[in-house]
Write a structure and sequence with these properties.
This protein is 19% helix and 49% strand. It is an alpha+beta fold and 169 residues long. It has one domain (2-155). The termini are far apart. The relative contact order is 0.20.
């Protein structure tokens, strides 16, 4: 039975998953960090597709009356997204995708939809400028039946938390 599960997981990806990492380093590219595709788990993940949406722009479109009146709400939402078809992610993969402009503001929020042969995953990424440097918080979740399960979380030291010591995702 265990051998059958291993074979099935090798074909489907099992409980492995992929996510994005924002490599915000200092220097001249501080406002244009690299987006990296990362693999987590024991098995390859197949047919991986990422869609990144700027959460602030998405909320502005949803609040816009004109976006609803012209009947093109989906098109307006997709205008503010970046998509990557990564294909197969092997264990240990770290793949540079492109740079992401964070701009000169103090905060950016992104929602990432990750689809793969083994399911649908969601990622929240929050970027905050603290003392001139970007601090990043990232959380990957998966709907397991009726429960949303956190699979991966990374919070930079110095990332601001709310009054009860948690991240406002």
């Amino acid at each position: 039975m265990e051998l059958n599960n291993t074979i099935a997981s090798s074909i489907t990806g099992g409980d492995s998953f992929c996510f994005l990492e924002i490599a915000a380093t200092g220097g001249p590219m501080i406002d244009n960090p690299q987006i990296l595709a990362m693999h987590q788990g024991k098995f390859p993940v197949y047919d991986v597709f990422f869609q990144i949406k700027d959460q602030d722009k998405v909320e502005a479109v949803i609040k816009s009356e004109s976006a609803w009146k012209d009947g093109l709400i989906i098109e307006h939402l997709n205008e503010n997204s970046i998509s990557f078809n990564v294909g197969t992610c092997t264990p240990g993969l770290v793949k540079m995708l492109r740079r992401l402009s964070l701009g000169s503001g103090k905060e950016r929020r992104f929602t990432v939809t990750i689809t793969a042969r083994n399911g649908l995953y969601n990622q929240s990424i929050s970027c905050k400028r603290i003392n001139g440097a970007w601090k990043i918080a990232s959380k990957v979740t998966h709907l397991n039946g009726v429960n949303r399960v956190t699979l991966h979380e990374r919070i930079d030291p110095g990332f601001p938390k709310n009054s009860i010591g948690q991240i406002d995702w």
